[in-house]
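Why do we bother with a discrete structure alphabet at all? Because it lets us treat a fold like text: something you can write down, compare, and reason about line by line. To make this less abstract, here is a complete entry for Beta(1,3)galactosyltransferase EpsH. Read it the way you would read a sentence in a foreign language you are learning: slowly, and without expecting to understand everything at once.
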Amino acid sequence: MPKVSVIMSIYNCKNYKALEKSIESIIDQTYSDWEFIIYNDGSEDDGKTSEYLKKLGKRDSRIQIIDCPNNHGLAYAKNEMIKVARGDYITAQDDDDVSHPMRLAREVDFLNRHPEYAFVGTVAKVFDNSGTWGHYGLKEKPTKNTFLWNSPFLHPSVMFRHEVLDQVNGYRVAKDTMRAEDYDLFFRLYAKGYKGYNIQEDLYEYRIENNPNKKYRPMSDRIQEAKVRYKGFKSFGMLTKGIPYIIKPILIGLIPQKIFYIIRKNRY
């Protein structure tokens, strides 16, 4: 039985080279006791994504490809992968990101040595097609107050204890978690008394495009995130304190894109 299950969900892959590099970064890990479950979430691209995955799946016998005929969304896909995952630890990998060769080794070692933590993530380099352009910094030991401004964890960098995900029934499949299933999960974990830690090493490379002429999140997604924040702060008993932060994603969506571009540059 593998110690670690790596899960990845893909829908209509648009960049084969990025996908290939992402998968190779798991194959090239110094830690080798893993399985890699890749879920094709009902891609509608005339079989292109399916063919990509069949080709890449042949590179390592530890890779398992699951083809779903219909698209159900990220939270549903992750729950389906968790159901078949055999590892004591579960971690994700986004299909256009890259893991440092020591990422799994560092995270497994941390969880082995720190039973008081339910999960562990890392800080990361931020990159796009032009190369590295920023740093994704996070607090080492997040508290409930750390949730106010943003999610205190970089979700695809996080490794969870399998039994902890089972305790909270995995990801919540709902309209308001379509673009915030990770934030919602961390809220629910902390509400139950679990806690996480962020290793202060760049063990992940996180793709963020920062184009001054392009909006990346429609207002509908921002409204859904506000709903997740409302439920999360309510579960923390922090609703009054959290009100300004509940409406934060909506207010940010009203900022002109060129100004938001500058803010984002300074954030990372």
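What the structure line is telling us, in plain words: The chain has a mean pLDDT of 93. The first strand starts at residue 4 and ends at 10.
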